[in-house]
Specification:
The protein is α+β, with helices and mostly antiparallel strands. A hairpin with a 2-residue loop joins strand 2 and strand 3. It is built from 2 helices and 3 strands. It starts with a helix and ends in a 9-residue tail after the last strand.
Amino acid sequence: LYTVAQADRALPYVRRVVADLVRDHGEWRRCLAALDAERRGVRRPDEAAALPEDLNVVRRMAARLSADVQAALGELAALGVECKGLDVGLVDFPAEVDGAPAFLCWQLGEPRVAWW
């Protein structure tokens, strides 16, 4: 269980992991969108337009990004921190508030843990 002070002390590391996680998850989703568009025979969505034309390259990128996302989630889990929002970098630190189980919440871009 974390106190607010402990969660804040963990933030420099958590912040780096979560920033990479959000970036890699977004890129992975763009790869999937490009692959899905190709499978359906439609034009790529604008957010996937900048990806390589070679679908084998996109598939390899998607596989690498998926592995990177899983590794980052594993790093957070090793700390006992749970990611609740891959798109925005929302994480929960398990805690206890007034004797009851709770979660201290933090989102990428926030300076400190301020919510539960």
